[in-house]
Amino acid sequence: MKVPFVDLVAQYQTLAVEIDQAIKRVIADAAFIGGKYAGEFEKNFAAYCGARHCVAVGNGTDALMIVLKGLKIGPGDEVIVPANTFVATSEAVTASGARVVFADVDPETYNLDVSRLEKHITSRTKAVIAVHLYGHPADLAGLGRLADRRGFKIIQDSAQAHGAVIAGRKLIEWGGPLCFSFYPSKNLGAYGDAGAIVTDDEDLAVWCRMYANHGRLAKFDHDLEGVNSRLDGLQGAILNVKIKYLEEWIEKRRGHAALYDSLLKGVPDLITPKTDPDRRHVYHLYVVRTAKREPLRRFLQDRGVATGIHYPLALPNLTAYKHFGHRPEDFPVASRLQDEILSLPMYPELTGAMIEYVAAAIKEFLAG
Ligand SMILES: *Cc1c(COP(=O)(O)O)cnc(C)c1O
After folding, report:
1. DSSP class per residue in 61-72
2. Is pTM beyond 0.90 here?
3. Atom 2 (ligand 1): residue with closest C-alpha?
4. What is the C-alpha to C-alpha distance for residues 357 and 61, in angstroms, rounded to an integer?
5. How much distance in Å is there from the Cα of 289 to the middle of ligand 1?
6. What is the DSSP letter of 176?
7. pLDDT tens-digit profile of 225-261?
8. Looking at ligand 1, which atom is closest to the CA of residue 181?
9. What value does the mean pLDDT take over residues 208-228?
10. In the predicted structure, residue 317 carries a pLDDT above the cut 90
């Protein structure tokens, strides 16, 4: 059997007629940049998130960068990001002009460890970017209490967490703004780059929309120099089709995760994802942990099972951040995770038989 890591073609095949029609309509209307279909998606996604505003932009990294600028965070400011996340989170901070400060993650949830965050807070700390890594919601309650006490803003990097819920409340209800990516393999994915800012703050939404469109509010004048980061009409139309299925896909991911959990329970040298029962984990990724990661990965590859590593180097250990002079010991949890985490195949179209095959191969290798 072959089990790919993701299968975007399988998903397209289930929607081909609808998607093809949607693409044709965009071309017939020449609604290529922004316009009717992008606008429709903004309404649909704001409603899905339970938020007042959605500003669609070119990609998730821009969403983060534009929001930072919209919150007037820039040179001289510091923004704390988790040591284990995709590089886009910290890249956006640097692009805003602010300084990136890394904080270690929790050994069980792999999200920001709020109990160890305080030592990184200085008078320059303007914001913390909470990343809902792998689709597991970060501790927004704990972070919110710290933010109230120490006076910083919280930005939610929700690129992996469309549809996540904490204690019955959607992410926006914990405060915003939220930044999303619709990179093709994300839980809600376009057929190219796309992203969005979701907020209840009207002033922030208006500013971000202006900045993302060359700093233009009125047709002939530009209030300031912005950037070109808008949603393509084609991507908007494709996302309008796909968003109708998002909840169904999330429930499938959660079902797959439950099956992995039950099949992998008690396998020696293997840690399955820990989830708080109060949080709706949307399983963008299903990440296990083992000290035997490399040999297991090769074994699975030989059996036709593709896996991933998210991410192979914790951010402070990247060459790009060498100038900070961090040592791996400064971020002991993230630095250990980078050698032990393994992402198993996870996408809605996976079958029970495929999951059983993957789990059997893992057991064969680890329990021998
Ligand atoms: C994908 C991702 C982003 C960036 O999204 P792009 O659309 O690829 O720019 C940011 N943060 C996290 C955690 C991501 O997974």
Report:
1. HHHHHHHHHHTT
2. yes
3. 159
4. 36
5. 22
6. -
7. 999 999 999 999 999 999 999 999 999 999 999 999 9
8. 7
9. 93
10. yes
